[in-house]
Amino acid sequence: MSVRLVMKDEIEFEAVQEGVAFDLRVIPGARRDAIAGPYDGALKVRVSAPPERGKANKSVTAILANALGCQKRDIKIISGETSQNKRVIVMGLGVEEVKKKLGQQG
Fold this sequence. Notes:
Elements: E1 14-16, E2 19-27, E3 34-39, E4 42-46, H1 55-68, E5 75-79, E6 85-91, H2 95-101
């Protein structure tokens, strides 16, 4: 029996009432802060901050705000506060605008 693993190479964005929701895969304790691109349907983000007392989450919102040209307060982690797998909402932007700013096609 063989098992086939299919990695999604596109981020799945969802238009919601507040803006755009999507999943993140966060790698804390990295050498440098960076948006690494798609990872199994999510956006992979590397942060140098450690995963303690919300430091990595603060770094994630700062990185996303910088990349999207919005305020940190416009990015809300709605699930996965203590997990590497998170779901965020970016308020006030549309799906196409978020895709463009994050370098995604389509």
